[in-house]
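Subject: two folds for Thursday's group meeting

Dear M.,

Sorry for the delay on this. The cluster queue was jammed most of the week, so I only got both jobs back this morning. I'm pasting them in the order they finished. Each block is the input sequence followed by the predicted structure tokens. Could you check whether the formatting survives your parser before we put anything on slides? The first protein is the one we discussed after the seminar.
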Amino acid sequence: PKGTQVISPADRELIFHGGLAVVECSWARLDDVPFSKIASPHERLLPYLMATNPTNYGKPWRLNCVEALAAAFYITGFDSYAERLLDEFGWGGSFWKVNQSYLEQYRSCKSAAEVHAAQEHIIKKLEQDYEDSRRDKDTRHGSSEDLLIANPNHKDQYEEEETESGSDREAQTTGSGNIINETS
């Protein structure tokens, strides 16, 4: 959290010679960590990535330690370390599926400045896609959804109810209440 520079492929030599480290703590207790007592001459931030761990699934920038280490290893070209770390977790494959395109973009950069620019581009595109989807939804459905249209997710249920009510119906009436068809 004290880092000011994002990790990039340019950090490969630092990692090769010094390794990677994370501070394991709960996001809720981050303020309790005495970062001033931790000697860390090369603090780095991770760029935009989505957590897939069970605790923070779907939350951007809320990676757990394993996800953070795997992402840092992958971005800097240590693929086998990254894969080995996440292979131990059932949700590890989800991390790759959700973040693969982002990781590939970051990995193709040469410097922290390029990774930062890639991150900004990714965030801008996500925001634009969200706005477009909201606008498309409003265009398709007007300002609100038509509640008189049957929900297609309940199609089988509607068909069963219709079949049951058709055989149980004793009389069908017109708008004036007159019986027009009797069945038994």
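Second protein, same layout:
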Amino acid sequence: YRRLHTKETRLSEFSQREIKAMLGSYTKVLFIRDPLHRLIATFLQGMGISPSFSSFVQEVLDSGTHNSSVAWKPLVSLCRPCLIQYDYVVMFGFLRQELGHLLRRAGLPAGNLLPELTDSQVQWTYRWLSEQMFSELSAQQKKRLSHVYRWDLAAFPFSSSFLSD
């Protein structure tokens, strides 16, 4: 497809015919992560200059979803799951299991290509971090975050997310 190998070509820059042909010929994989975990990871990576998680969350809430960073923008606004029928949806915390399945489906040897991932440790660590950091937030911040990410929480199985409580 023309412009296919240019840097950061948006899907909207292609014609409807090209979009349909591309989406029909590709295996579409969507990697998802609990919105609260995404915020925590962004904060821990120092992408926000805030001294506390609570003040970082307040900056995120004040920035609004239109001006927000891709790091914390709602997933449904980034990946359009209602418009694009993904072949696989892989949830962070189940990467080793899911990537092994994907590699086998593609006819590749899964064992040698997968990095050492310990899904259960990742899940436990983020559960603990979520408890700690979520407790720093005010009731209003929790409510606003749940509202910002309401469509992500409805579209994806984040049943254990603190934001869905």
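Two things I noticed about the second structure. The chain has nine helices and two strands. The chain has one domain: 11-155.

Cheers,
T.
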